[in-house]
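=== Given protein ===
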Amino acid sequence: MELQIQGGAKLPVSEAIWGESFREDLVHQVVVAYQAAARSGTKAQKTRAEVSGGGRKPFKQKGTGSARAGTTRGPLWRGGGKTHAARPRSFEQKVNRKMYRGALRSILSELVRQERLHVIDALEIAEPRTRLLLGKLAEWKADRALIVTEADDLNLYLAARNIPYVFVTDAGALDPVSLVNAERVYMTVDSVKKIEEWLA
């Protein structure tokens, strides 16, 4: 199998990685798990036993015309405790390495089939200037894009930081949510080779 490089040349790649069938159930499970792991899970509320005050009966049992009450910290009172209080918890879901890599292969293969994945020789920005990257994006006729490089490129990251819907990542930090959300994905030749080594 070969991927077309912008400019005319072709890059031979593994059929097992870039030509796999799309498994919607697996991709959905991995994407949901990835997003769930990003949740902080730090929400906390107090029950009636944990809020301060309420140790004395607020008014006498009879004769007031109000419903009887033994504390001002019950869930019906302003400032009272929560009935089913939230507790800090982890939203993490178990996804093993084989499933995660399988989902990435499935997504990459589908991007190739839909012609949303484009391979470029290299992408170098001399200075961290937004206009330099905008010039490249104008050449590609791309408004929304995910750019994948072999390693961290600070100039490229800084140039893309102020452009909406344009994101930069290195091959080692590639994730399923970024790939699924990307309208177009631009990968350098070196990043394609690195991804192949990772997913092989």
The first strand starts at residue 2 and ends at 4. The beta strands are 2-4, 10-12, 117-120, 145-149, 166-170, 185-188. The chain has seven helices and six strands. The longest helix spans residues 97-113.
